[in-house]
Amino acid sequence: MNKQQHDARRKDRFLHTCQHFNGVQNETCALGISYDHVGDDRLLPCLPPFRSGAKQPTDCTQFKAQTEQQFADWETGIKESLAKIMRARTAIVDRIESSGDESGEISPCPVCAAGALRYSRASNGHVHAACTTAECVSWME
Fold it and tell me: Looking at the chain, which terminus has fewer C-beta neighbours within 10 angstroms, N or C?
């Protein structure tokens, strides 16, 4: 699958997901409607099937598809989040290379300039980091 096909598939899945879907970690959607359990399969009426031949989800009278604008807003948010993470990660790698410290804190945070960016790098090179400002950056690789 090339990038164009992948992007089209991601958009299609988004547009066919209910606005009330709030994640598989929950027992009910945002409206309080229970996700049905059938045997070992969890039927999620809020989502299209993930693979060809998968069971179609049960019908939900409250299903409300995502809109093109919601998709555009979601994509913009993802791009902005990734740009912030890359800015923070670059600062962390620069700090590790200059100081040799595999964990520490960068203050002020290079993203929000208000909080402190706490980080650690695992032996496999993966960086875990979070800013003390709640809405800034936080990730694990």
Answer: N
Q: Does 57 have pLDDT greater than 70?
A: no
Domain boundaries, the chain: 1-66, 83-140
Torsion angles phi and psi, residue 120, rounded to 5: -150, 150
Select the more confidently predicted residue: 25 or 90.
Answer: 90
The answer to whether residue 20 scores a pLDDT higher than 90 is yes
Give every CB contact of residue 99 below 8 A, 6+ residues apart in sequence: none
CA separation for the pair 11, 22 (Å, rounded): 18
Residue type, 10: R
Q: How far is CA 73 from the centre of its chain?
A: 14
CA distance linking residue 69 with residue 75, whole number of Å: 10
* Lowest mean per-residue pLDDT among 20-34, 67-81, 126-140: 20-34
